[in-house]
Design goal:
This protein is mainly alpha-helical and 362 residues long. It has 16 helices and no strands. Helix 3 (31-54) packs antiparallel against helix 14 (306-335). The radius of gyration is 20 Å and the shape is globular.
Length: 362
């Protein structure tokens, strides 16, 4: 999961630099995100067949190999079609690896699955942030920003060595897979996951723009707002992992959505930089638990079908990655970014409603 984070944070930070290298507009550059979202949906559709045909462990390694191929293609390419293909390969294969790994992690830890997923995401965020710093340093050196993308294959090589020398127990017994369709709670849990992903991507892509517009900071300075948000993510996931061991995941997720709403209100109303930064940190603290616990909720609602959950999740997440920021951008064009950011509390309300209506017994 940390290897995945180096890819997703590294390529996200590299996108403005890549756009300059290619000499394309912002709209064309945004197609790289669209390619990732589309590939994530395809990955979710293909995942059940891959898991049945090869099993989880080979599928994880297939995903890692394809993700590294995509990152490498972006690193060596100077042509738009090849960089788009690289983003798509990395996004699709990376999703195959990520969601299969989370299903396996949940099975391995049994009742502590939600806490384990949260803790793993916390570590991944820290490693992902490190990749953005490496990219920033490389961009200012003679090596150039592309050299920083080597962090992903280097960490993959370290993973291969580590896994090859580590013996893991089988963990708790996995229930026999059941047949039939999941009930309505599973589909509601998928909607909650989609809302949570959309919320995070809205902050990632438009938070800095709103910060600049409301406080008068330059665009370059306002970009540090993303660091504040990610800092809140990292802190919240480490703390939330312990909380998820003591409180039901549904209650923690509902509370985390409330924290995000409070942080959003502070951020949305503020015209002072320090207050706005504080709002972004609070938003990050709340959002830190969104994806891990929403994913755990999908697994729990699947009725002992974690591989079904692993397959459905990237489809819903991919739709959110594409639709959430697009809707916010369209509203911003018509009404301004400040008004458009009202989409965040709307998504929070839908997610809270889904959590409360689809709670399952622990």
């Amino acid at each position: 999961m940390s290897v995945f984070a180096t890819f997703v944070y590294g390529l996200s930070a590299a996108l403005p630099l890549l756009r300059v290298d290619l000499g394309v507009s912002a709209a064309v550059g945004a197609l790289h995100g669209t390619a990732m979202a589309a590939a994530t949906i395809v990955a979710g559709l293909a995942l059940p067949f891959l898991t049945r045909a090869y099993g989880r462990r080979p599928v994880i390694w297939i995903g890692l190999a394809g993700m590294n191929a995509g990152v490498t293609l972006v690193m060596v390419s100077a042509s738009l079609p090849f960089t788009l293909l690289g983003f798509a390969l990395a996004g699709g294969f990376g999703s195959v690896m990520l969601y299969t790994a989370m299903a396996a992690l949940s099975d391995h830890h049994g009742p502590a699955g939600p806490a384990a997923i949260s803790e793993a995401n916390a570590i991944a965020v820290v490693v992902g942030v490190a990749s953005t710093f490496l990219l920033s340093l490389a961009a200012q050196s003679a090596l150039g920003w592309r050299a920083a993308l080597l962090f992903t294959p280097a960490l993959t090589a370290l993973l291969i060595v580590t896994v090859g020398r580590t013996r893991l127990g089988e963990g708790p017994a996995v229930p026999a897979r059941v047949t039939g369709r999941p009930d309505w709670r599973f589909h509601v849990a998928c909607v909650v996951l989609s809302c949570c992903v959309a919320i995070e991507f809205c902050f990632n892509l438009f938070g800095a723009e709103l910060l600049a517009g409301r406080t008068g900071l330059s665009a370059a300075t306002a970009a540090t707002g993303l660091t504040a948000f990610i800092g809140g993510l990292a802190i919240g996931r480490f703390a939330g992992a312990r909380l998820a061991l003591r409180v039901s995941p549904a209650r923690v997720l509902a509370g985390a959505l409330g924290v995000t709403a409070a942080g959003w209100l502070l951020f949305w109303l503020s015209t002072q930089p320090l207050v706005a930064y504080a709002g972004l940190v609070i938003c990050g603290l709340g959002a830190s638990m969104h994806f891990p616990l929403a994913m755990a909720g999908v697994i729990a609602a699947s009725g002992d079908r974690p591989d079904l959950a692993a397959a459905a999740s990237p489809v819903w997440a991919g739709m959110a990655m594409g639709a959430g920021p697009f809707a916010l951008g369209a509203l911003a064009d018509g009404f301004g970014t400040h008004t458009a950011f009202l989409i965040v509390p709307a998504l929070v309300a839908v997610a809270v409603g889904g959590v409360l209506s689809a709670r399952t017994r622990a």
